Amino acid sequence: MSLLELDGVGKRYGRLDRRTVLRDVSLAVESGEVVVIWGARRSGRSTLLRVAAGIETPDSGTVRFEGRDLRARPGATLGEGIGYCHRAFAARDGSPLLDQLTSGLIARGVPLATASRRASESLERVEIGAWARCRPEELDGGEAVRAAIARALTHSPRLLIIDEPTIDVDVLARDGVLALLHSLAQEGVAVLATTGESTSLSGARALTLSEGELHGPPARELAEVVALMPTG
Fold first, then answer.
1. Pairing of strands 4-13, 60-65
2. For the chain, does the N or the C end have fewer beta carbons within 10 angstroms?
3. Contact 232/221 with Cβ under 8 angstroms?
4. Per-residue model confidence as pLDDT tens digits over 161-199
């Protein structure tokens, strides 16, 4: 049994002129694996991630996490096994990162001392512990991505889902963000991401989403194919 399984997933939008975004998509993601979905803008990449996270319900097919159908409990696994990275932080009177991560845990019933410790550890894990007292708007693109990952890590996810982790990130900082995601995979966390850049595919199992259909190596043992791809 795979950690995450999408089986024949379909998704359409609109009422009169319905547009098919996902067409019979099947995907399996294993623990400790990095899977990157490549596609052009409006290819359905973001929709695929939201469906995989249980944020949106597919019109057809099944999404299972650890063998459980996400349709039965929509959104229930967010924060309880699945970490979905949101780039935006709440405008809470200029609250610093540490406070925002801590308050998010407290809202889920975590005691203050435990919440503060877990928030600090997550910021240290993504190597921005020194920015704990900074406000989100003070961060550059790479730091903001790391902060979003840190917030997801406070819930100890087994699957991390992140949409375009290198967008708006300085070229010199992109390798560091990608290295962070691969290091999390080495610790056993599965990573499912999207990208529009071939330079973000190295070392991952790369799949292509085009016209609603997913194409590429079906299993992680074929990931070495990606390492040989040109990055120009």
1. antiparallel
2. C
3. no
4. 999 999 889 988 999 999 999 999 999 999 999 988 776
**Residues 9 and 51: beta-carbon distance below 8 Å:** yes
Q: Which CATH class is domain 1-81+157-232?
A: alpha beta
Q: Name the token pair of 40.
A: 């052009």
Minimum mean pLDDT range among 14-28, 62-76, 116-130, 211-225: 211-225
Burial 167-194, CB ≥16 within 10 A → b, else e = eebeeebbeebbebbeebbeeebbbbbb
Tokens of 43: 């290819």
For residues 189-212, average pLDDT: 87
Distance between CA 126 and CA 143 in Å, rounded?
Answer: 9
Share of the chain above pLDDT 90, in %: 69
Residue position matching structure tokens 């799949």:
207
Phi, psi of 154 (to 5 degrees): -60, -20
Q: Which two tokens stand for residue 30?
A: 């294993």
Q: Where are the domains of the chain?
A: 1-81+157-232, 90-156
Give 127-142 pLDDT, tens digit per residue: 999 999 999 889 999 9
Tokens standing for residue 99: 């406070």
